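User: Can you model how iron/sulfur cluster sits in this protein?
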Amino acid sequence: MPERLVPKSLTDRVWHYCPGCSHGIVHRLIAEVIDELEIQGTVIGVAPVGCAYNNYEYFNFDIIQAAHGRAPAVATGVKRVLPDRMVFTYQGDGDLAAIGTAEIIHAAARGENFTTVFINNAIYGMTSGQMAPTTLPNQVTMTSPNGRDTSSQGFPIRMSEMLALQDGTAFVERVSTHDVRHIIQAKRAIKKAFKVQQAGLGFSIVEVLSTCPTNWGLSPLKAQKWLEENMIPYYALGNIKGKDIKV
Amino acid sequence: MGEKVLMKGNDVIAEASIRAGCKCYFGYPITPQTEISHYLAEALPKIGGVFLQAESEIAAINMVYGASSAGIRAMTSSSSPGISLKQEGISYIAGAEIPAVVVNVVRCGPGLGGILPGQCDYFQATKGGGHGDYHNIVLAPNSVQELYELTVRCFNLADKYRMCAMLMADGSLGQMMEAVEFREIEDIEAIDKPWATNGMGTRGHSNYISSVNVNPDELEKLNQRLQAKYREVTKNEIMYEEVNCDNADIMVVSYGTTSRIIKNVIKDARKMGINVGLFRPISLWPFPYDELGKHASHVKAFLSVELSAGQMIDDVRLSVNGKKNCYFYGRTGGNIPSQKEILDEIVKILEKEDR
Ligand SMILES: Cc1ncc(C[n+]2csc(CCOP(=O)(O)OP(=O)(O)O)c2C)c(N)n1
Ligand code: SF4
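Assistant: Here's the modeled complex, given as structure tokens:
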């Protein structure tokens, strides 16, 4: 029997994600971290509304699918009644930074001891490319056809910085998926966030700058370049809180 | 036999939830049901349970969704405007087929309305409320004793059918002081929940809880399963009370607070030689259509008395199915109809029917 190259915590199912989409990459990173921490039996994920709504097809552990933006409240319910389990939410930027802003900020403020993996692709993927709260100034989307006009459509929200301000937040890091070096760093951050949760230190979040080639109207390669050249200058990479935590 | 104690309605709902094995409560403050959260903020931590004041009713119902998914008995309570915010979550609970107990201590609306008692959320509770083809079990107590018994029953039914069970009280029941006996109620033990997402552990396979299905045939199958379940609930769980129904000239249909007034109206009417019957639905969904409808053969008319502008009257009409005239009398805004108002209405109706 050839060795199975897929992490135990992933099923054999083929992604429904578009070519070049970051979702599959981040799923794999999460699964590898869960395998390495040997928590497949105790982890419970909360899926968003967004392209990753059915990530229970891919993750081989328990998952609860939540209403749009409500994953942090659902995760709160689970973690509070089962504090010895590992709980994480997986949320896009529409889910976390628009409709679910209240839920995420209060989960952080309460210091809920779960982890959030936040996929920031600067657009609404699933609903076919509308402006998100994270859409960059002048970025063209279906609902900002002339580019996001900050005078009428406001400015992108930096959620990680905002969440880091909450005393209940223990760990915040922003990472990217545009090349291998950054993907490796992204995995390291996700692993650390899970370990912060294991140590019971409070809310942890990793914001993953991600590509949506389909709705950006770019090839997978061009999308990676676009992310690097446009998103990283606005959303600075690196640790924002909890750098010195030893776990 | 247990001892009788004098307690406030809202406190009894809280105590009942603990006796029913509820391990966690999530809620957001709103009058007239805040005593439930005050009581549980003290009581739940003492038994190792979870009390959490959420940032909104939306968050609270989704916390229930999470805790229930994990297989733990969970409750949220609120009053009308807050229950509106919970509707998205309740629809998800229906679609994902998980148990949940929601208490609505109804006030009067629409909008922010007022904090006085109402029964104006009947449509919302029994006809859907949120999106999609679903039902909640809706139980309507009319005494503090029943607040206890029906709260416990909500937990048992929610677990049994994996659906939302709603306790529909109103502000006056919530605030009422009355004697209650915490009688032992059978099957209080939570049933096995192999479907729960509590970590796959040694289960050998993963569980997921979800209400989404983009395959039309599979989603239709879920809907068919839900409808079959609702038929089963309708077959097994209808509850109602009948008072003086057999020889009634007129059948008053009323639930909750207003049904208590009708019991006095029956006495007043008897002095005038009028036989008034009271049919009190206890399960508002499933509604006792057949049980009420059969009285059409011997009464002259039906009268629905509600703290609303006329909501349950629709179900009364469906029960009676055109066989007799159905009348409505209601007050809104938090006003409670007096015995005399109702009796005058009855006299008027009977005069008209006898003409
Ligand atoms: C209450 C509600 N409003 C709107 C929607 C429609 N909707 C589905 S996914 C989505 C946005 C998804 O964008 P994002 O969270 O950025 O995730 P992505 O698809 O990009 O991964 C929206 C608005 C919904 N399902 N529910
Ligand atoms: S639409 Fe965008 S986010 Fe969704 S799967 Fe395709 S590339 Fe990924």
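A couple of observations from the model: Chain B has a mean pLDDT of 96. Residues 4-236 of chain B form a domain with the Rossmann fold fold (CATH 3.40.50.970).
User: Helpful, thanks.
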